[in-house]
Amino acid sequence: VAKENNFVKELADINSEFAQWYTDVVLKTDMVDYGPVKGTMVIKPYGFAIWENLKAYADKKFKEVGVENAYFPMLIPESYLKREAEHVEGFAPEVAVVTHAGGDKLAENLIIRPTSETIICEMYAKWIKSYRDLPVRMNQWCNVVRWEKTTRPFLRSREFLWQEGHTVYSNENDAQDDVKRMLDIYVDVAENLLAIPVLSGRKTEKEKFAGAVATYGIEAIMKDGKCLQAGTSHYLGQNFAKSSNIRFLNKSGELEYGYSTSWGISTRLIGALVMVHGDERGLKLPPRVAPIQVVIIPVASHKEGVIEKCREVEQLLLSEGIRVKLDDSDNTPGWKFNEYEMKGVPMRLEIGPRDIENGVATCVRRDVHEKFSLKLDDIATSVKSELTDIQNNMFALAKQNLENSIVEVNSFDQLVSVCDDKKVGLAYHCGEKECEVDIKDGTAIKTRVINCYDENHTCIKCGKKSKYRVYFGRQY
Ligand SMILES: [Zn+2]
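Predict the joint structure of the above. Result:
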């Protein structure tokens, strides 16, 4: 007996209950499950395969610009965190602390890394002696723990996976260049791999990373108009070099503090992928990151030659490097259509006796729901070209949504009504922290990234001279 598949009926309505729709999708597509400890998640194979594809793409980009991978311990002496004043203030509320181990109370508490600036800088201080040792550029792929109050799978989880890059340079310019270079890589990952268009730029003083001189970020806009910080790149100046004592002998033989940066992207991006592309049928994955790019579904598989032809096409596509799955289980074709649509597989090929007779496969694209025939003769070539087209089409559609989401606003009241209307406001602001807090209190509207510096206007909230034009929105 084929198992029931009423997935679409079980999904919350994407327009009226977007948050519930999201939770339904990530759970029902087997991407993730809740962990036993509240706020933690189990990333299941289908979700993890997306992460692996993302990781492979980003890791290659990092290595192309000379970054090396390493691994640092998860446990950090509590005293390390306290060395950088702003850093400890920013992270202390969400740090998990280990007080006992091996049956004894520890002489010094250990924290589970919420991020690794402190421990990595400590090690760098030991290794860096002279300008000849610089730059140092290391990245690690690891987990971090942040005890968040409200959680949601992928978007805000108490333990998540990420990469964190940490560098030290001998001068400010090179460090600033690194910050921009890594931000550009994040834009590349978001736009070219995930088909997620982003706003990128500098964060305000209020929203910068705890301990940074400047934070740059990429922001994606979800289908419900909320923003998601999807990656950050920080210029740390000499702040961490001073608190960890990273000094080097410069060419003149004088001791100088290094200039450092850090940058990261995480499993949050998977949440963005769901929220930017999904629809009433469930997930919709861009081919470049999809664990299964093409699913082959035999029709009337008991008829002679059907399964054989399906296997032949499967092998052909596999040999061309396409991630293909042949589902020859005894579920009905209809069940399979629903299953792979809900899982966001970009393309399905149906092959039955009539198709074989006509020398074709019936193709259905997940992005536009179009059904058409592809000749079996040159199936690999046409599948590849369809996949490229799906990728480009998904990006173009998401880009259109992003552009339609941004509204220029000239007053605070207008900003609130624009955000209530599921959009993002672009407005002039004075740059004062207190004024930004005034906007946030009671509205939950925050600045995202700075669009441009401009002192020729007035702040939408306090009426003082503007410092910049900045995107405002509600967030995940
Ligand atoms: Zn103001």
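The mean pLDDT is 96.
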